[in-house]
Write a structure and sequence with these properties.
heterodimer, A: mainly beta, 11 strands, about 50% strand, globular, B: 4-stranded antiparallel beta sheet
Chain lengths: ~110, ~120
Amino acid sequence: DTGVSQDPRHKITKRGQNVTFRCDPISEHNRLYWYRQTLGQGPEFLTYFQNEAQLEKSRLLSDRFSAERPKGSFSTLEIQRTEQGDSAMYLCASSLDRVLSPLHFGNGTRLTVT
Amino acid sequence: AQSVTQPDIHITVSEGASLELRCNYSYGATPYLFWYVQSPGQGLQLLLKYFSGDTLVQGIKGFEAEFKRSQSSFNLRKPSVHWSDAAEYFCAVAERNSGYSTLTFGKGTMLLVSP
């Protein structure tokens, strides 16, 4: 169990650029989640996958955001035309495919949009 | 949707003193509740969870939490705080609308430990 891995740890980009983050879950975990955390707030749910199927998306996930998990293993989160309000910590988590199975979080990708 | 309130943004506790972090939830039925801890630059780590049964639950690192339905609370406690406990603590509830697949977090309480 190597834990949930996220890459990169930090990303600085200029407004209007596109960015992509990667998450590698714990290998036997079928579920993968993306959360966003801004300063002074708790993590907010964005979306989650069960295997390769994206089962739920938050209304926070605007049309500039897209997430994929093409083979049911790693996942990518892309933000197009970044805005300063996108600056946040993006957290990935994974869990077993059981109701109320605990989430295991990665260390996050901190995005700064200048 | 359910919600979670953590009334204290910051708490400072002397090392060796006891700790209680407050969490209140809003949900009509029995909620599924969690406490997570986040150290600087790290992801969140699960401390403990409450699903049903005994209202006093034990977690890792010497933490415990008590579910009180009458007060809609799930407060986190530790009898003697260590300097390494300094971190941010989040209470969370599993969202019924998502089949309990997603969590709604409170805004967190930052714990500072003084010597």
